[in-house]
Specification:
By secondary structure, the protein is an alpha/beta fold. It has 6 helices and 16 strands.
Amino acid sequence: MKKYILDLTVAASDKIHEKYVLVKLTGKEQLPDMLPGQFVEVRVDGSPYTFLRRPISINYIDKEKNELWLLIAAIGNGTRRLAELKPGDTLNCVLPLGNSFRMPQDINDGDVQARVLLVGGGVGVAPLLYFGKCLKESGSEPTFLLGARTAKDLLMMDDFSKLGRVFVTTEDGTAGEKGVVIHHSLLESERFDQISTCGPKPMMVAVAKYAQNKGIYCEASLENKMACGVGACLCCVEKTTEGNLCVCKEGPIFDVNSLMW
């Protein structure tokens, strides 16, 4: 896909959690096509400590409003500066980058109504929202399995519930089932044709092993540290069955069978 360097305008910046801000961007022209699972590299202006762009997952695309949503976890100098953006500010973005989640019809012999499970934890839920939207628009209602430490750490639940069934785990049991996603009863009570996951690596490893044991196609969105976003700096290399690959260019989505986990 063609890549663009665009100055986008902040349409809204909403603090949805003490650590997370939802930034909605728009442009004077129609935003280019973007696929679920892709990401953008954003320039951080006004920070003396941040020299490299920051990779942020595409959280959602609202074509009617011509908006790109980015869910930002304010955990470092760069992302804390991004969390301070105000409506009317400009954010320079390189997009769209990386590959995308695979649609059911590309895996299941053209069956758009395959049962797809999307598993996320923490800020890793971000790319699953737009993927869920694309799945629903293609005729397949997704099922979400989302994990967090506590009920207050669950993100964008209303948005997910508009797209499909939502199941939850929390480590302290304040919402959904107590524990982690891989222990949710849904995984034993229902069968899925495809699983896509994003979040902490231990969670994704556990989901991958579950899928492999069940013979289910599974893909994971990796969150390796990235700088350039185009495969030049080699800081995001991941060991795979095909050799060492740059997550930013060959990923971030990988068939878990190709990962050396």
